[in-house]
Amino acid sequence: MVETTEETTQHTDSDGDPLIRVRGLKKHFPVKSGILNRVTGQVQAVDGVTLDVYPNETVGLVGESGCGKTTAGRTMVRLTDATDGEVFYKDQNIFDLSKEEMRKLRRNMQFIFQDPQSSLNPRMTVERIIGEAIEFHGIAHGSERRDMVRDLLERVGLQPDYATRYPHEFSGGQRQRIGIARALALNPDFIVCDEPVSALDVSVQAQVINLLEDLQEEFNLSFLFIAHDLSVVKHIADRVAVMYLGRIAELGPTDKLFDDPLHPYTQSLLSAIPDPDPRKKKTKERVVLEGDVPSPIEPPDGCRFHTRCPARFGPCDSVEPRRVEVEDGRFVRCHLFDPEFADEASEANLEDLPNPPCQSGRPVDEPEAADGALDRTGDDDLDDADIDDTDIDDVSDEDDAQH
Amino acid sequence: MRLGFTDILRRLSPLAKLGLGIVAVVFLVAIFAPWLAPYPLGHVDVTHQLEGPSMAHPLGTDENGADLLTQVIWGSRVAVMVGASVVGICSTVGITLGAISGYFGGWIDEVIMRITDMLMAFPGILLAILLIFITQEPSLLAVIGALSVTGWSSYARLVRGEVLSEREEDYVEAARSIGYKSPHIVFREVLPNVLAPVIVQATFGVAGAILAEASLSFLGLGPQDMPSWGALLDQGSTYFLLTPHLAIFPGVAIMITILGLNFLGDGLRDLLDPRGLTRHGN
Fold first, then answer.
1. Which of A114, A307, A340, B4 would bridge A195 by S-S if both were Cys, CB 3.0 to 4.6 A apart?
2. A186 interfacial to chain B (CB closer than 8 Å)
3. pTM (2 decimals)?
């Protein structure tokens, strides 16, 4: 189960090099118990995540709570050190940097927090909250700094004279805007947005999402957008990664992933999106998963999803699925799409599945590397692929057609 | 919730305001003692020994004929000096060590907390007596030092607990994502958020220190060159049956001051620390 994490530079696509390359990222937390406080286990919060983020792109990272999304995001900007794996900012592995070098690099990698209540220091004015970062990195001082703070507040849709107020004087949405202004203050290229809207009212969510999209265009930002709300991700993300128990189950362009989910876990996730049209008959079949997410301390052998998977067959409980590229830019970690198990998969009685596998992909790894890093996470034809604003209906239509 | 100084003043309960008034009076009396005292310190009137209250001597005189009111007024200086310095030293040391302990954790936390355990397992006053006994020279400094050595531990405990919960807040992470170093985060970002319960504890701490000083003085271990309420109480107790006022007035001075501080502390706790985590202590 050793992930090879070699850096590969095979990029034939026209999008240019990725801004962030994550290779086999792992973050384990030791579990201590007993009077001797010995390490008795590891919470494998993130266990081999490989992902690219291209300039000006938004990658959505979705999954149930506890699947390691937030830890993955925090590790990717080195708010916590990784257990294993690499994260490259341009060509620099951020885990190779000294503390001082990392401090300088933080200008380029910022973080927007989930809870705007807790992410702003209650004892500081907005001016100080935003201005300190500017000051710390020597971007501006004195009145220049003050002007910058006011300018930033205006850009995120707040009045400049709010600068003298304290966080408790603002609403949740306004506070999140302050958090966004703080992240923008250093003019970063890459921002990890850790569920930036899940603590907000639905009406405010839309405003903040639109603000993020506008800012992305204006400042040329790349986002890793962590969320559990699929409709938000569908709206904002160019590509989506679906995480389950510390691993990425499926990764692909947003429209394709939502129209035609491959991994059984993705299928069940998407089937849980409620249909907003009450006139429609309830033809959409919901894949209801049994049981709970297994403990990340002792994840199941083989495929991590096999304990709950409606499509499990032969190798699932023993063999770790490889990452398979089913079509250009669509990656899946599931034996159903692995040519090696194609015969077994077709023998297994899988017709009951709402979305039976019809394609077989090619493994991304060399055959001898049992479970290795991928050469690319590819989104070659991202620009060509017409990313319409597909809405939720499309998903159910697809399902309707099949039943 | 953030409260400014004037907000706190306005919201204090009437009892706490009374307490604040008492504390302010004691403080002012201590500062202006030389001008308020009717007689210079050390002035004795051998013709009026052990006299009860009179126009010339509102609180009477002691066995040397010295004016008791003068001594009680000067005694407030010792009380204020001991209270302020002990709490100042204890809170500074305790806050610093507690913040380090809580924020960094690990072995440093273990070391600091075991030291506080040891200090808290000991009756503070006993250790202070021992320390003054060792220095062989009872003085104001010795008293302050002895009470400070043991007193910081409760502040360290309190601050550690607060920092432990506060460091999980996202703004700490946000400060790290900007690139701040740990000392900045601990002392500039986190500390201002944990000070409210410390202020409450410090108020009770002043009362505790004044009482401890009075106890030490009563035992003859207080400052020898200035009148202290505890020492006055001690002297008065010798003639208690003959002239009870000699013991009663210094005792009342102690009682009123402590009462004022406790009223103030309770009021502040209701405002700043509604969880009531703090306990009386020095």
1. A114
2. yes
3. 0.78
